[in-house]
């Protein structure tokens, strides 16, 4: 059984006991959360596709870790004008462990 969930504007294919890295969510390491934006759920031959979400399907996960991602360099330049700006950015992220996909 697997499902496609939407977290932070991005879609992830998840199964039980898989680990995904998403954008920062509300909660601390060790907290349990429920992902209710399930777009598709597949259980063997039974396929449920949402319009836009599947009703009655919830993915339960645990926040394993909170960290900052790799640094992304933002460099702006205008030629022949002497304009150069260099900035860096590190996105806040969380690692989620999928515990259960429950269908009611």
Structure description:
The chain has about 100 residues and is mainly beta. It has one domain. Helices cover about 0% and strands about 70% of the residues. The chain is built from no helices and 8 strands. It has strands spanning about 1-5, 10-15, 20-25, 30-35, 40-45, 45-50, 55-80, 85-104. The strands form 2 sheets. It has a 4-stranded antiparallel β-sheet with strand order 2-1-5-6, with no helix packed on it. A 4-stranded antiparallel β-sheet has the order 3-8-7-4, with no helix packed on it. Strand 5 (about 40-45) and strand 6 (about 45-50) form a beta hairpin.
Mean pLDDT: 96
Number of domains: 1
Rg over CA atoms: 18 Å
Strand arrangement, largest sheet? 2-1-5-6
Overall structural class, as computed from helix and strand content, comes to mainly beta
Topology, number of strands = 8
Major β-sheet annotation? 4 strands, antiparallel
The succession of helices and strands, N to C, reads EEEEEEEE
**Which percent range fits the helix content?**
under 10%
């Amino acid at each position: 059984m697997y499902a496609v969930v939407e977290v932070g504007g991005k879609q992830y294919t998840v199964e039980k006991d898989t680990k995904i890295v998403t954008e920062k969510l509300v909660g601390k390491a060790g907290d349990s959360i429920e992902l209710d934006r399930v777009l598709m759920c597949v259980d063997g031959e039974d396929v449920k596709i949402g319009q836009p979400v599947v009703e009655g399907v919830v993915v339960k996960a645990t926040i394993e870790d909170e960290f900052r991602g790799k640094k992304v360099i933002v460099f702006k330049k205008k030629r022949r004008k002497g304009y150069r700006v260099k900035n860096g950015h590190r996105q806040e992220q969380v690692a989620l462990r999928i515990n259960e996909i429950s269908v009611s």
